[in-house]
Amino acid sequence: MCNVESWRRRVPITIWLPQYNLEKLLRDAIAGITVGLTSIPQGIAYALVAGLPPQVGLYSSIFPGVMYAIFGSCKQVTVGPTAILAALLTKYVAQSEDFAYLASFLTGCVILLLGVLQLGFLLDFISKPVISGFTAAAALQISASQLKSLFNTTGSSGGTFIKAVINFFSNIKSVQLWDTLLGVLTIVSLFLLKCCSPSSPLSCCATCRVHSVRARNAVVVFAATAVAYLFYIYGMTPFKLTGPEGLVMPLVAILESIAIAKAFAGTASVDVTQEMIAVGMCNIVSSFAQSMPATGSFTRTALNHASGVMTPAGSLFKAALVLLSVTYLSEAFRFIPRSTLAGIIMVAMVSIVDFSILPPLWRHSKSELFVWFLTVVVGVTAGLEYGIAAGAAGDALRVLYSASRPRLVTKQFKVRYQVGAVDVALVALPEVVCYASVEHVGRVLRTVRGHVVVLDGRTNIHADVGVIETVNSVISDAEGGKRRFLLWCVEEGHGFDGINATLVTGDDLQRIVTEHCIDNRRVSSLSGVS
Amino acid sequence: MCNVESWRRRVPITIWLPQYNLEKLLRDAIAGITVGLTSIPQGIAYALVAGLPPQVGLYSSIFPGVMYAIFGSCKQVTVGPTAILAALLTKYVAQSEDFAYLASFLTGCVILLLGVLQLGFLLDFISKPVISGFTAAAALQISASQLKSLFNTTGSSGGTFIKAVINFFSNIKSVQLWDTLLGVLTIVSLFLLKCCSPSSPLSCCATCRVHSVRARNAVVVFAATAVAYLFYIYGMTPFKLTGPEGLVMPLVAILESIAIAKAFAGTASVDVTQEMIAVGMCNIVSSFAQSMPATGSFTRTALNHASGVMTPAGSLFKAALVLLSVTYLSEAFRFIPRSTLAGIIMVAMVSIVDFSILPPLWRHSKSELFVWFLTVVVGVTAGLEYGIAAGAAGDALRVLYSASRPRLVTKQFKVRYQVGAVDVALVALPEVVCYASVEHVGRVLRTVRGHVVVLDGRTNIHADVGVIETVNSVISDAEGGKRRFLLWCVEEGHGFDGINATLVTGDDLQRIVTEHCIDNRRVSSLSGVS
């Protein structure tokens, strides 16, 4: 705990900074600036999703960038506002803007605490289908909430996917031509820029094309803002210019960040504790500067990776670029058309939904597929937090159900003696026999055939008290009949230790059965056996 | 499904009635009348606990008695109002009395539906510690809610144990001498009558004593009512005379009934489906006659058993006696002092709490002890329904935790060949590998020693998709190094079938390893092994 090395692991900048050189600096700068160009429009867009002023989304890219450079352990991860956190925040911001800063602070505190207490293993209880279903539900809700901005309709953007869609269609008559045109144009041009692959004949100059693809969000926003400004100069304002939840937020924030870190870390294992400390510090520090909650962003992390980032210092360059834009360009923000931002958000949502999990779920594990659908359906109808809760509960029920039906592998054999033979059933007890399997275990032990039942406790570690009671009642019932129970190889104080059967040890089961059930006086109870 | 025998099993009266005779009739009559004498005061008391008029508690003994005689499968069980159901009902009765009848109807419908759909296995998910803790919390709450009546203090009786105790102590100055005296006298005399064991020198005449013990509740109520009536005749009224929840109620009702049936059925197994049908019918039918929810009562079932009941017909005699009391004695009900009834309830609560589960929990299973305490603490502070929910959630977490740390038993051995030997690790995969164990399984497979890792899938049935992905990433990492993975004896479409390792079968592991990892071209990757 107390040596220098373990402290340095907790502040990773002390590890990579001594080996820093000019080449790394250049590559980090290029990657950082590329990511920064995406962070500006996305930050503004996500602030608007949450119902906050545009600059809040930028503030949340600046301080987290600096803190992640100090505490972050995964070079590719870029911390900033994300669409999902923004969607969760909407409900609170509707009451007061200050809730966003409070949420950021509390999210940071909870994550930091979980990291310090090394409780990262709790994340294992949220399964991949739940994360995937939650992401799909979030993408649907966020996209639906942008319909209002994209078409500049009246009415509210709705708290859930269902409400947003209903609101949109009940106000569909108020669709504004110019906003719709600009929004659709944004989406189309983003997809076109995305499709500019190196093999495409459309590309004129390779370098120019690569950069325009990487910075496509910024390019589109710049173009749209310029158009809007021109309209403004000529006295026209055809576009609507700039002007959408608590304990679940830290969970979602850290889930997003860890899932992204794991996806990009490749073969290196992710230090979950360190990631929690980093994301926690990012949120705590940035909350003092009016930021919304921030965490690892999938799209920007992918961009960072593609731009060849070398160290977490890339975050510093991103933060610097965003800081510059806040300082010198904040006047321009009000000319960014909302429908352009809505288009950017919708296109970003397409890339975060991943349906590739569905075929293996269908082939391999229908119950997990059900959990995925449960998460999506509850998420889009009742709200995102309820979706994640329903998914986690569904997963817990799956585990409970399989725990309630343990396989008690039974082997049958005969032990012969002077005047006959006894049928022996060897029942292998599972590692853990839990309360939910009480009835199942009782039923199996009652119906197993054999004059002697040997309970094989070699792999058994624990049995709940209810199971012990049930097994004892089965044994006391069986004593009246022609059946004997032996408990084989159970360690003292472990599992089935508490049942009322003779405890036997040794490798030779034939000898053990002969000794305990045939050679001694109890032979009488087995007489009449052919 | 459609033969006569299976229909007769669903109406057990058709089975026992043809064999009915005079001896059975006499014994059933004695037992039924004895139980009836207890049903009258307890029924009135529990109606008052729920905040209902006294006769409602009696109505709920009459019709369920008749219905259980027709549909019941366990002769000892006596169905009627219970303290726990009354406590759960309080909250709803506070809004309107009619909710009690509605609750009775709905409770009956839900239980009947569960029975018809054969969903009795769902009850296995409520463990013994949760039932025990819930009973203890209910007894504490019910006793505390009677403090107000016992001492006739002002203020409310409180919705939870904590509130009831706080209310009592904040109104302690309003304690009424006469009520307190009568209440304490009731408790003392009930305990004295209970202690009249056959060996006691106090007993004058054996038969008389046995009957007074069995009918002690009725005796005490009769005496107290007589005293109160005398006071009334002489123009004095020193005693206050007669005038604590939805989906959880069916659950609690059927849990109580099944637990009691199991306790008294002895070696015979309980037909859970039939019990559900019986209790469901009891509640549905009796709800049309202004009854509160009814289920198997522990104290009265024990009395029924002790009185030597022979068939469910005992219920009919109980119902008849209660019906007589409603018809001819309802005028007398208003002279029953509330503090006497409070005393009866408190003494009944002592007998339903069972602390004998605690020592085995302490010795054997600390985590189950924690679940017990969790149920009690949440039950007495937040409310009984929350207690049962917290306990069930705690149990689910215990199962999840053990599922997240499966034991991957590893055996090490060497396989020798011409110029060296390879270390082989044989890792036994558990039956079900669930999503929560993703990190654990990944860690074990990364750190296991050996040049060849053989995954033993002989007992493996299922693995969640997340686990397959993690194992695949461990395998693809290992391929770069000097390690090979083999998958041994996995059935197609089962469990680990989806991983990217060579699937091998056969008994001779030495030969399999030689064939797949040494004899073919891959030997190069294992060269340099000593």
Number of helices of chain A: 23
DSSP summary, beta strand count of chain A = 9
Unreliable segments of 5+ consecutive residues of chain A: 197-203, 520-530
The major beta sheet of chain A can be summarized as: 5 strands, mixed
Structural class by SSE content of chain A: alpha/beta
Radius of gyration of chain A: 31 Å
Subcellular location (chains A, B): Membrane
Keywords (chains A, B): Membrane, Transmembrane, Transmembrane helix
Protein name (chains A, B): Sodium-independent sulfate anion transporter like protein
Membrane topology (chains A, B): Multi-pass membrane protein
Q: Mind explaining what this structure looks like?
A:
Chains A, B: It is a multi-pass membrane protein. The structure is a homodimer of 530-residue chains. The first copy, chain A, is of the alpha/beta class. Chain A has 2 domains: 12-195 and 211-399, no CATH class; 409-525, STAS domain (Transcription Regulator spoIIAA, 2-Layer Sandwich), CATH 3.30.750.24. Chain A has helices at residues 4-10, 13-16, 22-50, 54-71, 83-93, 98-116, 128-151, 161-170, 177-195, 206-214, 216-233, 248-265, 272-287, 298-306, 314-333, 338-352, 358-364, 366-381, 384-404, 438-447, 465-480, 509-519, 523-526; strands spanning 79-80, 295-296, 410-417, 420-428, 432-433, 452-456, 462-463, 484-488, 502-504. Chain A has a 5-stranded mixed sheet, with helices on both faces. In chain A, strands 1-2 form a two-stranded antiparallel ribbon. A two-stranded parallel ribbon of chain A has the order 5-7. In chain A, helix 5 runs antiparallel to helix 12. At the A-B interface, helix 17, helix 19, helix 20 and helix 21 of A face helix 17, helix 19, helix 20 and helix 21 of B.
